[in-house]
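Lab manual, section 2.4: Encoding a predicted structure.

Procedure: take the sequence of the chain (289 residues), apply the prediction step described in section 2.3, and record the output as structure tokens. A sample record is shown.
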Amino acid sequence: MYWLLGLLGLLFIFYIYLVFIAPYLVREKHYFIHKNSNELVDISKAYDVFDFSSIVTIAHFSDTHFSKHFQPKRINRLIRSTQRVKPSIIIFTGDLIEDYAKWSPKHSQKLISKLKHFSAPLGKIAVLGNHDYKNDGQYFVQNIYQQADFTLLKNEEIFGSMDQFSITISGMDDYLVGKPQFTFEKTFSKWRILLVHEPDAVMKVPNLSHYDLVLTGHAHQKRKWFNRFEKPIKGAEFFTHGLYVLTPKTILSICNRARRSFLGSRFRLVPEIIYYHLAKENTEDQPIS
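Recorded output:
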């Protein structure tokens, strides 16, 4: 009898953690990225050894899936994280809302207010995900981004520069339900970044070596049990989580969704934000992993 009460107590504590604690935490990842004289890219977790004056920082989060069950206030920790790190660029890789047909208009102004709290001197940039298109929600999402001072890239590019640093960011429309463009003109910026929502979309991209980083949203898992209730979504086949070396000059990075549930893959419950610290100048004689 006592063991049953203990088990119920543990389950109750676990439930409290899932519902009331985990969604308000945040997992930060930091990567230091540099190139050698041959433009080969090296990435490491040794972010705490660099000189902040010699780097430019990009913050990357994704897949908030805002809804009546996951309201804008849930990203306060992400906002505070960026306010502490002070990135030069903030990037969001799609699925801002879960389903426009179920969106409550009373939360719209709150969402705009929260997104405005993100600040970055070189800009805040986003692309659309497949959930943003549900029930023609893309028009609503575009309006939210505009009012929150985010630049939405829909098969478009944007260029930025500062002292000893230049960057071109290309944003692809959603691979599953949008009309994606897979080719962009090669630029001569110091750093070239491609934004896509679904990681597997890069399999359609020619000349991947034109990009230093490909930043994506979370990979859609293959669902076997719930497809009877909803339209099946093709799951990820090539890229599922973490980092991938696409070419010696190109790294793909997948950001776990900012909204996690206990049904999430591997019980990764805590929202994630990734910081990429880019070296302004090429580094000589550095080992390439």
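Check your result against the sample. Helices lie at 2-21, 76-85, 108-116, 138-147.
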